[in-house]
Amino acid sequence: MSMFVETLIGGLLAGTMYSLVAIGFVLIYKASGVFNYAQGSLLLFAALTFVTLTDQGVPAFGAVALTIALLVATAIAIEKLLLRPLTNRSPMTLFMATLGLSYVVEGAAQGIMGSQVRALNLGIDDLPIFLGDIMISQFDLIAAGVALALVVVLSLLFNRTRIGIQLRGVADDTRAALSLGIDINRIWQIVWTVAGLVGLVAGLLWGARQGVQFSLSLVVLKALPVLIIGGFTSIAGAIVGGLIVGAGESLAETYVGPFLGGGITSWFAYALALVFLFIRPAGLFGERQIERV
Amino acid sequence: MSEIDVRAAAEPLDSIGLKAVAGAAAAALVLAAPFLASEYWINAIIVPFLILSLAGLGLNLLTGYAGQISLGAGAFMMVGAYATFSLQLRVPDLPLPLALVVAGIVAGAVGLAFGIPSTRIKGFYLIVSTLAAQFFFEWLFLKFPWFYNGNSSATISLSRGLSFFGLDLNHPHGRYYLTLGIVTLLTLLSFNLVRSQTGRNWMAIRDMDTAAAVIGVPIVRAKLQAFAVSSFILGIAGALWAFAYLGSASVQSFGLTRSYQILFIIIIGGLGTIRGAYLGAAFVSLLPLALDWLFQYVFSGRVDAGLLQNIQKAIFGILIVWFLIKEPEGLSRLLGLRRANGGRRSLFPSSLKEN
């Protein structure tokens, strides 16, 4: 029993990481209807920039500030060079454009800052904590706390500030928002910046775990099933979806994996997402009925 | 009869004659290519180019013609390659060409299975299904030694090499002609297919699925057909990639990067055109060479391979975005090979948002 609980908790904590990445997607999807494949590369880019700066001797605070400045510049460039020329094109075209964008960001980031694995120390010790006979990783616990704090900040931003309300307006009805004088291009820039910041947080946490390297950008592939399960349009959905995928993966690996030779985490989330697609295509928290033929 | 009439009547004849001559010249060039190009060019550039064209063609039938996006091209290639390996190993009596066909059918059946979700969902929800195929087969073919016959390096290669009904093809020319023959055959097949009722059904679904359903296109059947045919071609392309080009392949030869590469080929070449696959594949094969040469020339080898790879990646990304923005119909239209039919087609119109 304690093994079950331990596996479950470990999975849930890992799931908060998936949630963090998925939140970045939801933000952009809500505001511009773009399924942003480049979220993973932005995450890598942010983490890599931070590590490179601290390696050069820049203090952590300054490195964060510089990284954020760079993320803002990137968001503005993406909006001007990619989103604006592709206005009114099909979501599929936009998706493929972000696929191209991910190549640009990854190529440029690794070309300039190197592609070797970089160690990142955030000063959090990874000591196990024991609750009775259940072992929990302290690092995972802190990461989950950070994810929770981020969600609270984001929901305050969206519900209490003027920009947040504008953003929800754009998400609800783009045309109505435009006719009310909301500057949609600026909203896009802001959303991509915020998504970049979420990526920075996620990238630093993941990077501290497994080193800052190319595989960080592949986390985007874990976020897709999370979104299918939780629904593309809901931050709450992204969190719940992340937890379900995290817990499901770790339970499946422990209890089903041995019968299949192990290593099933690579596709388990996708199998789960497919099941959800058949049962509840809009996801657990999705607003819109998805298109069917 | 006036002079003008005579000229008008004579002109088509001339152009037909001209086309025939040009076609014959092109065919002669293609057939004689092994004697004109160096062995390096055949092994490292022309053969992979042909196979990538074939893979692009396969994906183009699904994505460009039927409008179903797939990120799992690599998975279906993988199935074709591993099926060929298994057949050659376990059914030694089956000659290679038949083994390729059977492997293609296996890949087609797998494609059909992973296409079933497309009857209920569409758009990027469908990406999940094809990505599931990608990850599942990468895992499957690596996890169970049966698939690679317990080989210590987990790679597959044909122990008896390539042969065509007794004809030994284990040399650059043999590999070239084998690839060329299969690619030509499947291209002709696709050419006819997209002009048949099946192909027109696919395009109707791509352009507007609701309208297609209303006029009586069997949506479910047509979509599944597209998945099956596309995977059939991809499977054969995968087998050629593994055994005619690489010689020995592993799961990594058909990873996610390969799937993206095939998708990029058809975006750059032109979605929904047969020649687009060839143009895209030529571009994808030649660009890295051109960049290599350029960097050799400009920096005389002072740029290391890792950096070059990243620069290539970034340039590819920029080109993808550029094509999507400026020329959604790809090189095919850019080169003026497409009949001017007025106005640009928008890609995937049926997935356009309502608002």
TrEMBL record, chain A:
Principal subcellular localization: membrane
Membrane topology qualifier: Multi-pass membrane protein
Keywords: Amino-acid transport, Cell membrane, Membrane, Transmembrane, Transmembrane helix, Transport
Any Pfam family the entry gives: BPD_transp_2
Subcellular locations according to the entry: Cell membrane
Keyword Transport annotated: yes
Ranges annotated as spanning the membrane: 12-29, 60-82, 94-114, 134-158, 187-206, 226-247, 259-279
Coiled coil: none
Family: Belongs to the binding-protein-dependent transport system permease family. LivHM subfamily.
PANTHER family cross-referenced by the UniProt entry: ABC TRANSPORTER PERMEASE PROTEIN (PTHR11795:SF451), BRANCHED-CHAIN AMINO ACID TRANSPORT SYSTEM PERMEASE PROTEIN LIVH (PTHR11795)
UniProt protein name: Branched-chain amino acid ABC transporter permease
Species of the source: Shinella pollutisoli
UniProtKB/TrEMBL annotation, chain B:
Keywords: Cell membrane, Membrane, Transmembrane, Transmembrane helix
CDD domains, per the entry: TM_PBP1_LivM_like
Topology of this chain in the membrane: Multi-pass membrane protein
InterPro entries from the UniProt entry: ABC_transp_permease, LivM-like
Subcellular location: Cell membrane
Principal localisation: membrane
Transmembrane stretches, start-end: 16-35, 41-62, 69-89, 95-116, 123-142, 176-194, 226-248, 260-287, 307-325
Pfam families: BPD_transp_2
Name of the protein this chain belongs to: Branched-chain amino acid ABC transporter permease
